[in-house]
Amino acid sequence: MKILKIAAVVVVVVILGIVGVLMTFDVDRYKGVIEEQAKAATGRNVTIGDIDLAVSLAPAIVLKDVKLANAPWGSRPEMVVLPRVEVHTQLIPLLFGTINLTEIAAENPDILLEIDKQGRGNWMFDVASGGSSAPLNVSGVSVSGLKLGYRDAQTGRSADVTAKTVAVKIDGALQDMNISSVAAKAAEAAFKDGQAAGKLSLGSLDMKAKGKIADLGITSLAVADTTLNYKNTGAPLDLVVSGLSVAEDGKVGFAGKLSGENVTATGTLAPIAVLVAMNKAFPAKLEMTGYGLTASSDVTVEMVKGRPFAKGTIAIPEIDVSKFGGKTPAKTGERLFSADPLPWDGLSAGDADVTLKIGKLINAGGVEFTDISVPVKANRGRVTAAPVTLAVAGGTVSADVGLNANDKTVALKVQGKGFSAEGLAKTFKKGDLVTQGPLDMALDVRGQGNSVRDVMASLDGSLIAGMGESRIRNDALNVPGAGVILQVLNMANPFANKDPYTLARCGVANFQIADGVAQSNQSVVLVTDKMSISSTGQIDLRNERLDLNVRTQGASGIAGGLNQLAQAVKVTGSLAAPSVGVDQAGVVKSVAGLGSALAKGGGSGLGSIGALFGIGSKSGAAAQAGETGDLCARARAYRKG
Question: Does the first or last residue of the chain, that is N or C, have fewer Cβ atoms within 10 Å of its Cβ?
Fold first, then answer.
């Protein structure tokens, strides 16, 4: 024990002696030597305004006005400006040749990181790498008042970061960068990447790690009181994070607001190191809530040929669109098709084989769509969804969707089967307007462009629909708020105010679409027991305008006076606010045509309609009956495939 006491006294005397020497040591006289050694290590000029020494058992060297020169091509003279830096070291290890820095504390550092057009970073120093013979162990780095800038001349990306405090703990030698934790408070970042721009306000961040930072050995992450405002070609993103945690085993917890709506997520992803490095496949099994929705994902994510690839299923039990709000009805002159750029670039961000399943979707009008399945496959900007299926109004819809970001094209094929006019009327809240009326349709279109408006203006393809026999209630046609089709039917039907019902034998619609214009040449037809109604004209999708003429032609054997009741109807205006009125010029032609049809037994009128289906020309009452039967038979044949 006596020996230990003597040894302790000796150590204390030695330490006091060293402290005494340090107290009289003029460290500022070595400023030039330090600057030269720093220049030799970096290949850049390093200047120090002043050096002080604070002596204790953990002596501190205080450096003021430290500046590290930027690369010759940099946008400003200095890469790093440090108004004040304190370097604290342990005294006893110095006796054995070991430099243990307990803390490096920097105040108001101003750092600029830049990449030139050749891809060189200003942190790449033109000197050969070398190491110190003495280990330089650092316990931690603390920064207050951080200012960090980033500029990339190759990509145009930029970022500016500020932070009130940043604290980093390091295990072992500084050069090994074994960072065990990072804590930051009151940080802000503004960034730009092409048309994308955003701002991040970070309340607090706590991150734990092990191993070298280059190995991304992050074990846990916790973020709180953070907001993100992001704008791209699509809708802006406003995210508020009240709490985010990712544990070492991949357990995830999130609570916050997205565009003002509460959002939560819990489940399993992967350790943060795997999430960042994407060096192996990991699950994305999450339970999510938000916007009145609940959703679950069972997806696997991995890197395939250098690109992220997701495979699995996302399930949403129910979506009620009315809970999202909605756009107010369009006004006269307002465009329906948006000119906002489509997010084509986003289709190239990654690849996928994911199926979205929605149990029920309720639109703003209360219509229910069920059993929705959307199988999406994405490969380097080419996206297909086939077949997209859903059920509504007793029928089924099957669609093939194709998107190609490389040439900005859209292709859509839709088949609707098993519907009825009666079922659709009831589903879309039109009551008992019509009974029966089996109905099928087929749509096959393709277009190209930067926006929905561009795509519609370039649209090519066809729309065909066929309806079987139905009975239409006439008193339901002339009601306030009736749609365009009902208004047209009411005005074109001379018996609408006399008969309680209109017996429709069949109906056919056939639009051929080219360069954004849908043409109808007597190819929209409704055949009843007393007349036929046909439409000729166009729907201009480029300018969103309507120009359709509707004509009524009488069948043989009807009561006299039809030619005085008949009207020629014209549908004009914009798609957003169409207008239905009497075609004064067409009334004369319609009346003359009806008189001629009556005189000839109606054959000439239906002959032109029948030509749509290749029906031959006949005359007289027998011809009338035959052509009507042939037309409806062909409509039924179309409906069956």
Answer: N
Select from 81, 53, 76, 71 the least CA-distant residue to 120. 71
- pLDDT bin (cut points 50, 70, 90) of residue 506 is confident
Strands 78-89 and 99-107 come out as antiparallel
- Contacts of 518 by beta carbon, 8 Å cutoff, 6+ apart: 463, 511, 512, 538, 539, 541
User: How far apart (Å, rounded) are the C-alpha atoms in residues 634 and 523?
Assistant: 13
Q: Judge whether 447 and 459 are in contact, CB under 8 Å.
A: yes
Report helix, strand or coil for 495: coil
Q: In 3D, which of 463, 578, 442 has the Cα closest to residue 519? A: 463
**What pLDDT, on the 0 to 100 scale, is given for residue 246?**
84
Residue 352 CA to residue 307 CA, distance in Å, equals 10
Locate 116 and state its tokens.
């030139």
Quote the pLDDT of residue 607. Answer: 37
Token reading at 310: 């997701």
> Per residue, what are the HEC states of 193-252?
ECCEEEEEEEEEEEEEECCEHHHCCEEEEEEECEEEEEECCCCCEEEEEEEEEECCCCEE
Write down the residue that tokens 């462009």 correspond to.
Answer: 449
Select from 293, 302, 424 the least CA-distant residue to 367: 424
DSSP assignment of 104-168 equals EEEES-EEEEEE-TTS-BTT--SS-----SS-EEE-EEEEEEEEEEEEETTT--EEEEEEEEEEE
CA 32 vs. chain centroid, Å, equals 57
How far apart (Å, rounded) are the C-alpha atoms in residues 308 and 350?
Answer: 5
603 three-state secondary structure: helix
Give CA–CA dist 607/614, Å, rounded: 10
Give the Cα separation of 575 and 239 in Å (integer): 36
Which residue type sits at 500? P
Does residue 292 contact residue 283 with C-beta atoms inside 8 Å?
Answer: no
- Which contacts qualify for 475-479: CB closer than 8 Å, 24 or more apart? 475/500, 476/430, 476/431, 476/432, 476/433, 477/433
Eight-class DSSP state of 331 = P
The rounded distance, in Å, linking the Cα atoms of 485 and 433 is 12
CA distance 442 to 639: 10
What is the residue whose two structure tokens read 């005085």?
Answer: 564
Tell me the whole-structure pTM to 2 decimals.
0.66
CA distance 569 to 491: 7
DSSP 178: B
pLDDT per residue over 244-276, tens digit each? Answer: 888 878 889 999 988 788 899 999 988 777 777
Write the CA distances from 120 to 67, 159, 257, 552, integer angstroms. 21, 17, 39, 76
* Contact in structure between 83 and 107 (CB atoms under 8 Å): yes
Which of 387 and 174 is assigned the larger pLDDT?
387
Residue 358's H or E segment, with its range, is strand 351-362
Model confidence pLDDT, tens digit, residues 576-606:
888 877 765 554 444 444 334 333 333 333 3
- d(CA 304, CA 352) in angstroms, rounded, equals 10
